[in-house]
Amino acid sequence: MNSDSIKLLDADTLARADKLGMAARFIVEGYMAGEHKSPYRGFAIEFSQHREYSPGDDVRHLDWKVLGKTDRYYIKQYEQETNFIAHILVDGSESMQYGSGETSKFDYAKVAAACLAFLIIKQRDAVSLSLFDDSIREELPRGNTKNHLFNVLEKLVQFNPKGATNLPGQLHSIANKSQRKGLVIVISDFFDDEEAVLESVQHLRFVGHEVIGLQILDHDEIVFPFNGLVEFEGLENIENLKTRPAEIRKSYMKEFSEFQKKLKDGFSRNSSHFIECDTSKPLNDALGAYLTFRRETASK
Amino acid sequence: MSFLNPAMLFGMTALAIPIIVHLLNRRRFKKIQWAAMRFLQVSLERNQRRMKVEDWILLLLRMAIVALIALAASRPTTDWLKSKGLSSKLTASIIIDSSASMLRKDETEQENRFSIAQRIADEVLNSLPKGSATSMILGANSSGKGIKEPTHDIVRAKKTLEASKATHRGSDLFPAIESAITTLQDRPSSQKELVIITDGEASAWRQYEAITRSLDQSKKDTNAIIVLVGKNPDENLAITRLDQKTPIASVDQPVRLAVEVTNFGKVEANDIEVQMSINKEPIGDPTIIEAIPAGESRTITTFIELTDPGYQQISSTININDALEIDNSREIVIRGINKARALLVDGQPGRDLTESETFFLQNALVPVPPELTDSFFLGADRVSIGDFPSTSLDDYRAIFLANVSDFPEEFLPDLINFVESGGGLVVFPGDNIDATFYNKILHEKAGLLPAAFGEIIPEQGEGNTLIIQASGYNHPLVDLWNDPGAGTLSNVKTLKAYKLSLENTTNNNKATVALRYSDGSAAVVESNYGLGKVYQFSSTADTDWNDLPVQPAFLPIVHRVFGSILSKQDAGININVGETFIRKGPSSWIDKKATISYSNSPTASEISADEDANGASIEYNEINESGIYSLTIHDPFESIQFSASGDPRESNPELLSEAQKERLREVSLKFLETTDPKEISAALTRERKGAELWPILLLIAALITILELFLSQKFSQEK
Predict the structure, then answer these.
(1) Does residue B460 belong to the interface with chain A, where contact is any CB pair within 8 Å?
(2) pLDDT beneath 50: ranges in chain B
(3) Structural domain of A191
(4) DSSP of B674-691, one letter per residue?
(5) Which is nearest to A104 in space by CA: A194, A13, A219?
(6) ipTM of the modeled complex
(7) Cβ contacts of A238 on chain B, cutoff 8 Å
(8) Rounded to whole angstroms, how far apart are CA atoms A144 and A132?
(9) Are B599 and B630 in contact (CB under 8 A)?
(10) Using CA atoms, how far apart are residues B362 and B371, in angstroms rounded to an integer?
(11) How close A243 gets to chain B, by Cα (Å)?
(12) Are A235 and A228 in contact (CB under 8 A)?
């Protein structure tokens, strides 16, 4: 998948995102009606402007005060504010450049971020975007308009990953800066110190954020299929390693599994969701997993 | 440890191959950009040491495989492992002297030298490492019989050895040694062995210098082992010659024989009895030789009388029981004749007998009073030239043409047939002859005459005479006069003679000058023609041109001429062992069945006659034993006897000198003088290369290869 905004939002992905988004919106709107316990506070409708009444308008929205003073029929128009802010953090470090096939992990992450942003904005929730490596490289404040979505897409398209990653640092930074509670979606390969990452997740949870970890992995990183003599050139300035991978495959798989288990267990302990995405598999799984998470969260 | 193929040790440089492969492999790493380095780093840190150890193990194993293969290719041998199965196989050539001297039974031995040599050769065969090849050459005066090309079939070699027997041939080891060395040189084997088993008698080493040179030159790749089984005996008496001295052996006439006895011992031999026999029946009392000093010979002259015509076996025996029996007797075959007649054709009869051209010839041929002519073994009939064509030639064995001008050409075929069938033609010129007739018809056309009559010599003038050569009588016709006691031919004066020209001769049979004048020109020329013989004199048979007819030498010359004609057919009936028996015969023999049998053998060999230029010829070259042989032609039946005599040199027990032995020690790997086979096998085992290690090395290399494959598979498994 190339870094092309049109391709990012290809019809299939959009269609699937839209379908899942419809279900998600239904749950959110249900919470807005106040009939159910909503996890989000400060939900309100604020006045925007007047317009003349025309037949068919709901008479409940007539401004009776204006009618009384001027004897003219005006309808009150309102601007709806959301109480849901989703912080999308995309790992833009060099390690995300890796891809055994045509799709790098960052390509996959961009699509995931775009779909989520589209889904969230379509549900009239607000989205902020941060692209980081060892610090924040690109940032967009929250917004829920179509223009904002376009800006999100543009930032994603324009970003070129490089540098070493510092995921815990960025998560701590979000936890410290964000005053309004929301949802923090972390899209990364999470190839960092897992203890520090989980500590930062705990920090986000402590300040009231919900956290979804979307781990983007290449298929080769999961199965380590290499044979023969291979020199692994480390991304993010890590020294190259020469080895016969077949001879260390079991050991690699053991290390990798332990790492994954720690992450999954850590997210679970923090009542957060951790979704493992294989770049060789469709993105739908990730979106489905997200909405499932939202549904579960909404039902609490 | 030594190496049969040391050049292959350079193959050890191939040890670098695994290292180079290892280094090249390091450059063949596939490069992959990788994000999840942290897991790799941990895995590598955990496995690095193990992988390095595994790499070293595999590298060492691969180097060991290369080293072992290079080592195996260099074919190392070791002496600490003496196993017949593992011993380095070799190509051997065993030469056994099968000459007559090997039949000698030395005083301290229970069996003769050849039997000892057989046991030694058998031990050599037994000691050959498994997989070896050997030839088995029976060397006696030739490259010998047996197995010339080395064979891996040792059982066959043993059977050949067992069936072999010593011959009565003389011995010259050089051809057999040369042949064996050449054969061995052509073989690819890295170990070559030449085993020579002989009795060490000097006669077998007559080409000693050539033998030692050959052994020396082949020393670098062929190990020579020389085994001498002979011991120097103190005595040996032998009959070394038995010759017929009378040119014509006629029935009831004394035939003179010469018997030579030689004392090869170191002490004088006394009172040696020489017994003559005819057809194995002793005749008369033995002749006693009183004393023969050590190393000397004595010749006795004895006379026998043949009672029957035809082939007669004549043998002489000495009453000695010494170590070599076969030379204590000697046989020859003599063909006795009843009466032989000659036809004298007189070209100038004269008014009385004394003036006739054949007067001297007739008196020389039949030198007895008229009353004894009928009982004399030779007869001579005179005819004039006019009667010659009408005379039946069947009654005569020779025709003498004396100053015959010419004769009708129609008679020529009869004359040619007469000579071709074994008759003799003797031509004397004179004033009457038509030289053109002789030259054109008899010489050029018929090829009967060996030479053409040329100009008259010497230049006619007062005092010009031709003198017969005074010495150097090489032809059997005149070799009698090599003995000064027999007189001389140089006092014969010839006033006139034809120059005999041997140029442009068309005769298929080689012309030989039997006698010359002192100026070198030919006085008598002879040649064979078919089964017959032709003599051509340059001067007259009477005293018109020379005084030979009145000289004492005339009679023996005429008798020898006639005798050689009579014995022409029997030429080659007394040959030496090892020679080829050749019998010429009429063309009716061609492809007819014939057999040759040996008097001491119950079996006979079949043989057939081949066509040759003058009829048929039978050749037989399996004359290995001395004694009497019979050739029988079955259709028409004819039996011919012949004898084979051993080489007198075989009777001489003289061994190689110490200096010669010392030289042989230098050019051979091992020089042994023993009759004990165990000593030979022990020496051979000591001198041969020990066990070859290449099978073990290759086995180890194979096992290491399997181990390497297993480990490399195991090491490359997922961990």
Answers:
(1) no
(2) 143-144
(3) 5-29+83-298
(4) -S-HHHHHHHHHHHS--E
(5) A219
(6) 0.72
(7) 37, 41
(8) 22
(9) yes
(10) 15
(11) 8
(12) no
Considering the domain boundaries, does residue A70 fall inside one?
yes
Domain ranges of chain B: 2-81+694-715, 91-232+654-688, 237-337, 340-566, 574-645
Helix (H, G, I), strand (E, B) or coil at B281: strand
B716–A189: do the CB atoms touch at under 8 Å? no
**pLDDT at position B10:** 80
Residue range B377-392, pLDDT digits in tens: 899 999 988 888 888 8
Residue A216 lies in a domain: yes
In A88-127, the residues whose Cβ lies within 8 Å of chain B are 94-98, 105
Q: What are phi and psi of B703, to 5 degrees?
A: -65, -40
Do residue B29 and residue A229 have CB atoms under 8 angstroms apart? yes
Task: Determine the 3-state secondary structure of B24 from DSSP.
Answer: helix
> DSSP of B123-148, one letter per residue?
HHHHHSPTT-EEEEEEESSSS-EEEE
- What residues are paired with A88 via a beta bridge? A129, A185
CA distance B697 to chain A (A): 32
Are A171 and A68 within one domain? Answer: no
Please check whether residues A221 and A128 belong to one and the same domain. yes
Whole-angstrom distance, CA of residue B490 vs CA of residue B143 = 47
Is the same domain home to A71 and A98?
A: no
For B369-422, give the secondary structure using H, E and C: CHHHCCCCCEEEEEEECCCHHHCCHHHCCEEEEECCCCCCHHHHHHHHHHHHCC
Whether cis (ω within 30° of 0) applies to the bond prior to B293 is no
Residues A20 and A67 in one domain: no
CB contact under 8 A, B35 and A97: yes
Q: How many residues does chain A have?
A: 300
CATH number of A131's domain: 3.40.50.410
Residue A273 φ then ψ, to 5°: -105, 140
CA A280 to chain centre: 20
Q: Note whether B32 contacts A231, CB cutoff 8 Å.
A: yes
Query: Are A129 and A213 part of one and the same domain?
Result: yes
Which residue among A94, A191, A229 sits closest to B36, beta carbon to beta carbon? A191
Alpha-carbon span B551 to B540, nearest angstrom: 14
pLDDT tens digits along B91-120 = 999 999 988 889 888 877 888 999 999 999
Instruction: List the single residue in A228, A235, A251 with the smallest CB-CB distance to B34.
Output: A235
Could you tell me the two tokens for B148?
Answer: 């010339």
Domain assignment present for residue A38? The answer is: no
Contact predicate B73/B190, CB 8 Å: no
Any CB–CB contact under 8 A between B718 and chain A? yes
Per-residue pLDDT reduced to its tens digit, B296-353: 999 999 999 998 888 999 999 998 888 888 899 999 999 888 888 999 999 988 878 8
> Domain B340-566 class?
alpha beta
Search chain B and give the residue with CA nearest A106. B35
**Domain covering B237-337 in this structure, CATH number:** 2.60.40.10
Q: Is B27 an 8 Å CB contact of chain A?
A: no
With CB atoms and an 8 Å threshold, state whether A235 touches B40: no
CATH superfamily label, B91-232+654-688 = von Willebrand factor, type A domain (3.40.50.410)
CA distance B12 to chain A (A): 28
Could you say which DSSP state residue A135 is in? S
Q: Of A230, A235, A247, which is closest to B35 when you measure between CB atoms?
A: A235
Q: What is the largest CA-CA distance in chain B?
A: 150
Q: Tell the residue number behind the tokens 């069938």, with chain if given.
A: B421
The CATH classification of domain B574-645, taken from the options 3.40.50, 2.10.260, 2.40.30, 2.60.40: 2.60.40
* Residues constituting chain B: 719
* Residue A39 domain-assigned (yes or no): no
Residues of A in contact with B53 (CB under 8 A): none
Q: How many domains does chain A have?
A: 2
Cβ separation of A241 and B42 shorter than 8 Å? no
